[in-house]
Amino acid sequence: MTTMFGIHSTAGTMKTGALDAMSANIMIADAKLNIVYINPATRDLLQEAEGDLKKELPRFSMATLVGSNIDIFHKNPAHQRSMLAALKKQHRATISVGHRMFDLIVTPLMRAERIMGFVVEWADAKARLQNTDYRNQLLAINRVQAVIEFTPDGEIVSANDNFLAAVGYTIAEIKGRNHRMFLAEGEVGDREFEQLWTDLRANKPHIGDIIRYGKGGKAIYLNASYNPITNDAGKVVKVVKFATDVSERVFAVRTVGDALSKLALGDLSFSLDRAFAKDFEALRENMNSALQQLGDTLASVSRSAGMIDDGAREISDGANNLSRRTEQQAAALEETAAALDEITVNVGNAAKRANEARQAAATANDSAHHSGLIVADAVGAMARIEESSNSIGNIIGVIDEIAFQTNLLALNAGVEAARAGEAGKGFAVVAQEVRELAQRSAKAAKEIKELIRNSSEEVRHGVQLVHQTGDALKVIKDNITSVNEHMQAIAVSANEQSTGLTEVNSAVNQMDQVTQQNAAMVEEATASSATLSQEAERLRQMITRFKLSGLSSYAGAAQPTAISGDEEALASFGNPKKVIRLSSNSAARG
C-alpha cells in the first residue's frame, strides 16, 4: 500500500488503519495543500454538513473532496496559503461556514525544516460554543444571584458570595451542614423540609417566593428555584438553588400594605419614614404624597362640610322663616282674592244696577218730556177754559143785564098796570111773574156769575198750578237729564271698574297661585335645606372616622406616626396575615 506521501510500507498501512479507527476527525493535505486523506469520522462530519457547506462554498463536494485543494474551504485562499506557508507549529482556529462553526487544529508535518504536509483535526464547534455560552450564563447568574449547591439529601456543598452575604454566614460555617438550618424551627420547618427534598429527589423542581432564616434568626425573603441536576441515567446527583434576595421588595410591599390597612381604617396621621430600596423609593414617596394630599383634601372637605353645614342651617332657618311668611302672604292673598271676588261681584251688580238706573232715568226723562208736553197741553186747555169762562161771564153779564132790564120793564109794566087798574091786573100778574122770573134769572145769573167767577179763580189757580207743574216738570226733566248724564257716567265708570276689578281679580288669583307655588317651592327648599344639612352632618360624621394630622377638633386626631417596617415580618412568604417578630429569633437555625 502506498502511503499518503508516496511511500509504501507495512508501517504506513498500520498508521492509516489507526487513523481510520480514530474517533477524532483527521484530514491530511500535502505540501501543495491538496487533500490526500480523510478518515471516516471526518467524512461523516462533512457529509452531514455538506448541504450547508455548498450554500457558502459552491465548489465543495464530498465525492471529489480527496484530491481537491484545501482552497475550496476559503473564499479568499491567498491569506490562508501565506499563513500555512509560514506555519512552524500547531495552529488553532475556528471557521464559520454559513451557520456551521468548526474548530480546526492545523499541525505542519516537518522534515529538516521543510513542510511535507499538514494534518488538520476537525471538530464541530457547536457543543463547545454552547458549553461556553452555558458557562458564561452561569457566571452571569452567579454574579447577580445567590447560588447554593446541595447533595440529593440536602447537604450543603458550596455557596457563592451573594448567598453568603444574604444569610450572613461564611462558607466554612455552612459547608457540610444540612439545608434544614435555613428553615423555620419546629414541626412546620420539618414538614416543609421533608416535602421539599422528597420532590427534589424525585426530579421535581421548586420555584417561588420563600422565606429563609440566616444567621441570628434574620428573616430573608427570596425568589428562588431549586433545580435538580441529573446524570446521563436520569438520576438526581445534586440540587442547585438560584435565588434573588427580595427582602427590600417584601419590606416595601409589607410596609405599603400596613399603610393601606391603616388607610382602610381611616388613619391618615402617619408617614413612611424609612427609605425603601432604590427601585421602590418612588413608591414610598408616592405613598407619602398620596397620604399628604388625601389628608389635606379630607381636611379641606371637613372644613367645607362645616361651612356647608352652617350655611345649610342658615338657609334652612331662612327658608323656614320665608315659608312662614309665604304661608301668611298666601293666606292674605287668598283672603284678598276672596274679597276681590265679592267686590267684583258687587261692582258688577252695581254696574248692572247703574245701567238699569240709567235706563230708568232715560225712561223717566222721556216720561217727564211727555208730561211736559201734556202739561203744556193742559195749560193751553186751561187757557182756553179761562177764555171760555170769561166768555161765559160776559154772556152771564148780558143775561144779568137782560134780567135787570126785564125786571125794570116788569116794574114799569106793574106801574103801568097799576095805573090801568082792573084792566091792568092781569098784565100786572104777568108783569109780576116776569119780574119774579127776571129776579130769579138775575139771581141765577148772579149765582152763575159767582160760580163762573169762582171757576175762573180756580181755573186761574189751576193754570198757575199747571204752569208751576210745567216748570217743576221742566226742572225735573233737567234734573233727570243731569241724573241720566251722571248715571251714564256712573255706568261707564262702573263698567270700567268692573273690568279693572276683573283684571285685578285675575292678577290677584294668579298671584295667589304663584304664591301657593312659591310656598310649595319654599317647602321643598326647606326640605332640601334640611336634607343638605343632614347630608353635611353625615359627611362631617364620615370625616370624623378618619384620623387626620393637624385636626385636633376631630376625635382620634393625632400627630403623624412613622411606619418603619422593622417590627413585623411575614411568617410565610406570600401570607401577609401571619407575622412574626424579626427580633424574636436570636439563635441560628441548624
Automatic annotation (TrEMBL):
Record-annotated HAMP domain positions: 252-299
Gene Ontology MF term list: transmembrane signaling receptor activity
Keyword Coiled coil: yes
Keyword terms of this UniProt record: Chemotaxis, Coiled coil, Transducer
Signal sequence extent: none
Domain Methyl-accepting transducer: 304-533
Location in or out of the cell: Membrane
GO BP annotations, alphabetical order: chemotaxis; signal transduction
Recorded GO CC terms: membrane
Coiled coil (residue ranges): 504-542
Family named by the database record: Belongs to the methyl-accepting chemotaxis (MCP) protein family.
Full protein name: Methyl-accepting chemotaxis protein
UniProt organism field: Rhizobium lusitanum
